[in-house]
Design brief:
2 domains; alpha/beta; 12 strands; five-stranded mixed sheet
Length: about 400
């Protein structure tokens, strides 16, 4: 679960960089040819980057392990199951928000399909009775009956661009992102900017007479349909659209802004990799400075790796952190899990591995707790820190059922 929280944290950092980078670096250019792929690819990358973990030196680290030790077993009882798990609360809140957003969007689809049944298909578009609405969604274009016939053709061409350029796919993708990261304001900012770019593209490709087109935007009073995933001719970006049509905005992308945004983005990615690469880099330096010890025994001056405060503190930590899985308790599953890990020369614990397990739920309970351990005091040999492999046996034990009392004679 801790891994999921770390994943969500990284995703939201990348979403912030993409959203704010476009807002302050490129929005004023109003360049839809650059802006649309930048926002879509950037947002998609935010969900992919956290999965990219570079561990090309992992094989080297195993060759440099000089000692392996098995510690005394830790016993976990089911009485420790009842503990406050703030991570579970956070995941639950995120899940409830996502479910709420998905429900609202699904209800919006229902409203739209119900609305569509009340319209009439007349040639190329659907006519909305007694209405001045105008919008599109995927291949369907809706134009209100109250809109003058002379204006309908212009509006139709505008909405047709949305259909042909498949803008609805972009918007639905952002609806999904909003469901996952509903708490991140940058997501809503990105959605708004993306829809604004859609309008710029439609305005530019459909207009023949800019004066007439601007007059239509200014004079015609359109009604709005309150759905976040449709494209409306009377959008919230009317002022910016008119300015873009009337003025020849410099659409050249600032190289400085692009370089700055990409530097921050990939810099954040590099920082996220740091915890995975620090141990490998240190072990590589260790290998270059001295030959690895393949066969060794500790003398009186050497020390094995140690948990801060000693074994008693380690047992206290694991006793507080490990939760006896409820499902295992119900299945009366118990046994000893042997978990190995490497204590690096800086005390960082990595490469957790189940040497011998019991069940998936019990194995995961042990791994989740062990991965929360702070840095250890590294082991030393001949006065130098060394990497050590440690193995901890963790016993999951259920209490013996009480014997039934014999009836009084």
């Amino acid at each position: 679960m801790n891994n999921w929280l770390s994943y969500f944290f990284e995703v939201n950092i990348y979403l912030l960089i993409i959203g704010l980078g476009f807002q302050f670096g490129f929005k004023k250019n109003r360049n839809y040819q650059f802006g649309r792929p930048f926002l879509i690819i950037g947002t998609l990358s935010a969900f992919i980057f956290p999965f990219l973990k570079f561990e090309k030196l992992a094989a080297v680290s195993k060759d440099l392990i000089t000692e392996a030790w098995i510690l005394e077993p830790v016993t976990i009882l089911p009485t420790q199951y009842f503990s406050f798990d703030y991570q579970l609360i956070i995941i639950a809140i995120i899940g409830i928000g996502a479910l709420t957003k998905i429900t609202i969007t699904a209800f919006g689809f229902f409203r739209l399909f119900t609305f569509k049944k009340k319209t009439k298909k007349e040639g190329r578009f659907y006519t909305i009775p007694s209405s001045a609405k105008a919008f599109s969604f995927f291949n369907s274009i809706f134009i209100g009956e109250k809109i003058p016939a002379s204006k309908k053709e212009i509006i139709y061409k505008h909405e047709l661009v949305h259909v042909q350029k498949r803008h609805s796919i972009d918007v639905l993708f952002m609806q999904l992102v909003q469901a996952i990261a509903w708490y991140n304001p940058a997501v809503y900012l990105t959605t708004s900017n993306l829809k604004e770019l859609h309008e710029y593209e439609a305005d530019q490709l459909c207009q023949e007479d800019s004066f007439t087109y601007v007059e239509l935007l200014l004079q015609q009073s359109f009604e709005n349909y309150n759905l976040s995933f449709i494209h409306q001719f009377n959008s919230n970006h009317i002022k910016n659209r008119i300015m873009r049509i009337q003025k020849k905005t410099n659409q050249r992308i600032s190289k400085v802004a692009l370089l700055t945004t990409l530097s921050i983005l990939f810099g954040s990615f590099a920082i996220s990799q740091n915890s995975h690469l620090v141990l490998d880099n240190q072990l590589t330096q260790f290998a270059e400075n001295r030959n690895p010890i393949k066969e060794s025994s500790f003398n009186s001056e050497d020390k094995m790796a140690e948990y801060p405060g000693g074994q008693t503190e380690l047992f206290n930590f694991l006793g507080n952190e490990i939760i006896y899985p409820k499902i295992s308790k119900g299945e009366k599953s118990e046994g000893t899990v042997y978990v190995s890990f490497i204590v690096g020369i800086d005390g960082t614990c990595t490469d957790f591995n189940i040497k011998r397990g019991v069940s998936e739920s019990i194995n995961n309970a042990a791994l989740v707790a062990l991965k929360k351990m702070p840095k250890w005091i590294p082991g030393t040999k001949d006065g130098e820190n060394i990497a050590m492999e440690m193995t901890i046996p963790i016993k999951f034990v259920l209490p013996e059922p009480e014997a039934p009392k014999s009836p009084d004679k």
